[in-house]
Amino acid sequence: QERLVESGGGVVQPGRSLRLSCVASGLTMTFESVQWVRQTPGKGLEWVTLLTPDTRKQVYAESVRGRFSVSRDTRRQIVFLEMNTPRFDDTATYYCARHRDDVSFDLWGRGTLVTV
Amino acid sequence: SYVLTQPPSVSVAPEKTALITCEANNVATKAVHWYQQKPGQAPVLVMYRDGIRPSAIPARFSAATSGDTATLAISGVEAGDEAVYYCQVWDPSVHECVFGGGTQLTVL
After folding, report:
1. I need a labelling partner for B60 at 20 to 30 A (CA). Which of A61, B68, B80, B107 fits?
2. pLDDT tens track for B5-38
């Protein structure tokens, strides 16, 4: 069974760093398309990171570009989101989610809450 | 930037058909995807590429896109369909993923 499980959320002071983890298991599709989407309290969804379907390039939403970065441990099937210099408006539930080549997200974790 | 506009709420009686719209400039030129999110849960993909249903989603769900409007239709609405529904597209020209603001579906 395909599954994504996030961890690492919590309370972080503005300007400090936090690293989120997403452990993937049972994936039948490419691991590199596991990315991050966030949802602010009581509000809607916002993409954070993506793999462009045409050039397979890692891209970041403008709101986090230059501050957040994605890395992977392919052997252990873990995706990390390094959150550097977080701001108050980064407070959100962070989901790792796999997207298809049409950039529809077909598998989601349960999310981890980050409070800045 | 590209904006997807959804009505904040839609109400429908049980067993009727709910129509949830998603409006944007020439949205028919993009692949539109739809998600269902129930309280305390992660979103679930219910429709992708305008009108394709994942295997686990019942046939009561359908979708279509024309011109500036994408529509998710849920026929024979049940109490369990009560949720927030989001539309989403990928804009390759600017490498941006866009979500609509979400529509709360209430079953009367």
Report:
1. B68
2. 999 999 999 999 999 999 999 999 999 999 999 9
Phi–psi pair at A54, nearest 5 degrees: -85, -50
Query: Between chains, do A110 and B42 touch, taking CB under 8 Å as contact?
Result: yes
Contacts of B95 in chain A (CB under 8 A): 50, 52, 59
Instruction: At A90, list the tokens.
Output: 């980064």
A18 DSSP β-pair partners: A83
Q: Give chain B's radius of gyration (CA, Å).
A: 13
Residue (of A104, A30, A98) closest to B49 by Cα position: A104
Q: How far apart are CA B4 and CA A45, in angstroms?
A: 12
List beta partners, residue A3.
A25
Q: What is the dihedral of CA B23, B83, B40, B51, to 10 degrees?
A: -60
Residue pair A116/A87 in contact by the 8 Å Cβ criterion: yes
Comparing CB atoms, the residue among B31, B49, B99 nearest residue A44 is B99
The tokens for A92 are 């959100």
Mean pLDDT for back-to-back runs of 10 residues, chain A (116 residues): 96 95 88 94 88 91 96 93 96 96 95 97
* Residue A114 near residue A39, CB atoms below 8 Å: no
For residue B41 the two structure tokens come to 């849960």
**CA A16 to the chain's CA centroid:** 18
